[in-house]
Design brief:
Layout: H1 11-21, E1 24-28, E2 34-38, H2 41-48, E3 53-54, H3 72-75, H4 85-94, H5 99-118, E4 125-127, H6 128-133, H7 135-145, H8 152-163, H9 171-194, H10 200-211, H11 216-246, H12 249-257, H13 262-272, E5 283-284, E6 291-297, E7 303-309, E8 313-316, H14 318-321, H15 356-373, E9 378-379, E10 399-401
Parallel strand pairs: 2-8
Antiparallel strand pairs: 1-2, 3-5, 4-10, 6-7, 9-10
């Protein structure tokens, strides 16, 4: 039996077993190819910042899981890059996601949240994912990039097809989604070149066309990644946070009593039920001996290790690390008074989530607006269904009454 069997259905039970058994396990990847999974906090944190574990698919050996099958025009993004290209491109776009810039976006985000809640009326039932948790981040990121309203629903459908494919649809659905996205971004960039505006995408085009610091594939891939990640991570975050707090009435009461707890509560939501079960796959880079030594070190100074062959797929699990009792006591309990700093839900090291300040702000604002508007909000579905995805830990739907 594969040691990771049951990961989709009971992830934290599986992670507990893996952590208790060994630091690193050889498993079958999502497509059946062999991979290695890392689950303990210290090991995951070290791996996320280890330069010997590359995101560049050129280092993958044949028959290794590589992730999405994307054309070069969408694949030349930060999730497949190491320095120096990663450093160059991240620096170009980083200023759009600084804490200061995000503070300026809080007002527009709150207005978007209020508008979505207005549309629900004063009472009723709704799928909170479809009516609130999904349209809020897609609206915010599309406004930031300058993407017209009429294309936003299409993009949600395409990303859902890639991240959590319907098994009944077969591989053709994912290929069709990729073709559609490629055509969409090709037309969008052409439109922005003809009619630039005051938005991030026009700024990136100017960087490409005037300074030539981005290739055309890098430009399109960067636009794709910002839109994709800006939507995907945050919709899971908002939905998971709402479910978690409503499953813990005592924590919900404390949050209603003191909304100033929301920033700290958001860190605990990230730790408790983050937006991904696994981080982006990595590949050990070959050293002089032909293998990469993935080492783990303990506070007492003893060093052990597991030898992972160069080029094989390594999965590191922030979700498992965030439930490690050696780092977070009683980790399976949601505790909004906990010091959850140091969690790894948004990564660590040079690949730390570029949009982390925006995701945090959107989650805080979404919850604040929701709790203020509907004091009698309640879960209407006792057992919500999770998406069939290792990449996106999120809900298919979240039925609530208000």
């Amino acid at each position: 039996m594969d040691p990771a069997d049951g990961l989709l259905d009971h992830p934290y039970d599986v992670y507990r077993r893996l952590r208790d058994t060994a630091p690193v396990h050889r498993i079958a990847g999502p497509d059946g190819t062999p991979a290695w999974i890392v689950t303990r906090y210290d090991d995951v944190r070290a791996a996320l910042a280890d330069p010997r574990l590359s995101l560049d698919k050129r280092y993958a050996t044949a028959g290794t899981y590589k992730g999405f099958s994307l054309p070069p025009a969408l694949d030349a993004n930060l999730l497949n890059m190491d320095p120096p290209d990663h450093t160059r491109i991240r620096r170009l776009v980083g200023r759009a996601f600084t804490p200061r810039r995000i503070e300026q976006l809080r007002g527009p985000i709150r207005r978007t949240a209020d508008r979505l809640l207005d549309a629900l009326g004063s009472h009723g039932t709704t799928d909170l994912i479809a009516s609130y948790a999904a349209p809020l981040p897609i609206t915010v990121i599309c406004d930031l990039l300058g993407i017209p309203d009429e294309h936003r629903l299409d993009f949600r459908v395409w990303t859902d097809t890639l991240v959590a494919p319907d098994p009944a649809a077969g591989p053709a659905a994912a290929k069709e989604a990729v073709v559609a996205m490629l055509g969409f971004f090709t037309r969008l960039l052409a439109d922005k070149r003809r009619e630039p505006a005051d938005d991030l995408l026009s700024d990136l085009i100017a960087v490409r066309d005037e300074g030539d610091r981005l290739s055309e594939d890098e430009l399109m891939s960067l636009a794709f990644l910002i839109l994709f990640a800006g939507y995907e991570n945050t919709v899971q975050l908002i939905g998971n946070a709402v479910l978690a707090v409503f499953q813990h009435p005592g924590q919900l009461a404390a949050l209603r009593e003191d909304p100033a707890r929301l920033p700290a509560a958001t860190e605990e939501f990230l730790r408790y039920e983050g937006p991904a079960l696994l981080a982006i796959r990595r590949f050990p880079v070959e050293d002089d001996g032909g293998t990469s030594r993935f080492e783990r070190s303990r506070e007492l100074g003893d060093i052990g290790g597991v030898t992972v062959p160069a080029g094989e797929t390594v999965w590191v699990s922030p979700s498992a690390a965030n439930r490690d009792p050696d780092r977070f006591p009683d980790p399976d309990r949601l505790d909004l008074a906990r010091d959850a700093s140091g969690h790894l839900a948004l990564g660590h090291g040079i690949h730390y989530c570029l949009g982390a300040p925006l995701a945090r702000a959107e989650t805080e604002i979404a919850l604040a607006a929701l709790l203020e508007r509907f004091p009698d909000l309640a879960l209407a579905e006792p057992t919500p269904r999770w998406r069939n995805s290792l990449r996106a830990r999120g809900l298919l739907a979240l039925q609530v009454s208000y």
